[in-house]
Design a protein that fits this description.
The chain has about 120 residues and is an all-alpha fold. The protein has a domain of about 55 residues. The radius of gyration is 25 Å and the shape is elongated.
Length: about 120
């Protein structure tokens, strides 16, 4: 199987979307880098808890909340960038037709010919 060669064949299709992919990758990187940071701070929190240092515990908990906020914003950014619909020409609408034409048969919903699970 030529798996590496198959990836190279995908590059021309990805090239027009390089900005979106880069932005999603940066969000993924931020999201991923937050985990070791949170693990390290969890060790600090445990030490403050054992020592009974309430002031340091509260300050560090506030820092953890800020890091969680950054992490979740990065996760949202990653999902939003990668789920973004491809560019659509302004001359076409969601039904797939231009402003001067009627919707095509494939763009309209049709009633099914037969019910799969009829009720009553």
């Amino acid at each position: 199987m030529k798996s590496r060669a198959s990836y190279w064949l995908l590059l021309p299709y990805l090239r027009p979307h390089w900005r979106t992919i880069l932005q999603a990758f940066i969000c993924t990187l931020i999201f991923t880098l937050c985990w070791p940071l949170l693990a390290w701070i969890a060790g600090l929190l445990l030490g403050y808890l054992v020592q009974g240092n309430v002031l340091e515990l509260a300050q560090t908990a506030a820092i953890v909340a800020g890091i969680f906020l950054v992490q979740k914003l990065a996760q949202y950014g990653q999902d939003a960038w990668m789920a973004r619909p491809p560019y659509r020409s302004p001359s076409t609408s969601a039904t797939g037709c231009t402003p001067t034409c009627k919707p095509s048969a494939s763009a309209t919903l049709r009633k099914p010919q037969r019910e799969i699970c009829p009720i009553g």
